[in-house]
Amino acid sequence: MKKIVSIMTAALALSACSPQPSNQPVEQNIDKVEVITDLMMSRRSIRAYKEEPVSREMLKDILKCGINAPNGRNLQSYEIRIVDSPELIKAMTEAVVKDMPEVAKRPGFKNIFVNAPGAIFIAYDTRYDFAQVDCGLLGENIILAAWARGIGTCCLGSSARFLLQSPSAKPYLDRLNFSEGFELLYCIGYGYPDETPEAKPRKESMIQFID
Ligand SMILES: Cc1cc2nc3c(=O)[nH]c(=O)nc-3n(C[C@H](O)[C@H](O)[C@H](O)COP(=O)(O)O)c2cc1C
Fold first, then answer.
1. Which fold has domain 45-199?
2. Residues lining ligand 1, CB < 6 A?
3. Are 73 and 30 in contact (CB under 8 A)?
4. Which of 10, 91, 142, 182 has its CA 20 to 30 A from that of 120?
């Protein structure tokens, strides 16, 4: 119950992403620290989803949080596309599976976005050397803003790789209509979660203070 309340409070805190973002620094506030920490520590990659679609209004709020992430020189060196049509998700999947049948061998396979009912496609500006960093920060904001609203996500390198490598998927890649100089980097599958995975262990030894 405490977790649900804190996630809901996080939702309210993060609703600052939507229409009128405040330009005031967030004051040190123990409640916010707890809520945001809980949000980050409870988030998991979701690979089983309910069929219920996520509304475009909700998605817009989440993406506004995304594009408010820090980014190099405020170049906003990415382009974002969203596909929530079951028909288009199915068609993309069929195209990839035609060229790479092994992809469909994963148990319970439904689509190339770890079975998510929706997918966000993130392309980076190949002419800017920090564009991939911008894309990563954009994605983490999207993922946390989604989690605060009860929406699960999975960051997906494989889906982008499949689409880029499958000749049959080329028309769907073209349909994403990224501008000249932009290339698909990764996808984020999203939807209402139908699983509660455990956290995977992290290597705290990776963190070192240097005197
Ligand atoms: C760049 C990147 C690419 C990823 N690609 C995939 C993928 O192709 N398929 C997948 O199931 N998960 C993918 N993931 C999710 C990771 O497997 C997951 O974040 C990691 O195992 C830690 O688990 P957690 O997110 O639940 O904490 C990717 C994550 C990142 C950051």
1. NADH Oxidase (3.40.109)
2. 44-45, 47, 114, 154-158, 186, 197, 200
3. no
4. 10
Nearest residue (by CA) to ligand 1, atom 13, is: 156
The residue type found at 196 is T
Residue 108 has what pLDDT? 96
Per-residue confidence (pLDDT) for residue 1, from 0 to 100: 40
- 1 or 34, greater pLDDT: 34
Query: For ligand 1, what atom is nearest to the CA of residue 44?
Result: 26
Cβ neighbours of residue 7 closer than 8 Å, sequence gap 6 or more: 38, 39, 42, 147, 148, 150
Give 59-91 pLDDT, tens digit per residue.
Answer: 999 999 999 999 999 999 999 999 999 999 999
- For tokens 């195209």, name the residue: 95
pTM: 0.91
What span, in angstroms and rounded, lies between the C-alpha atoms of 185 and 81? 12
Our mutation pick for probing the ligand 1 site, out of 112, 140, 155, 198, counting the most ligand atoms within 8 A of Cβ, is 155
The protein residue whose alpha carbon is closest to atom 27 in ligand 1 is: 44
pLDDT classification of 30: cutoffs 50, 70, 90: confident
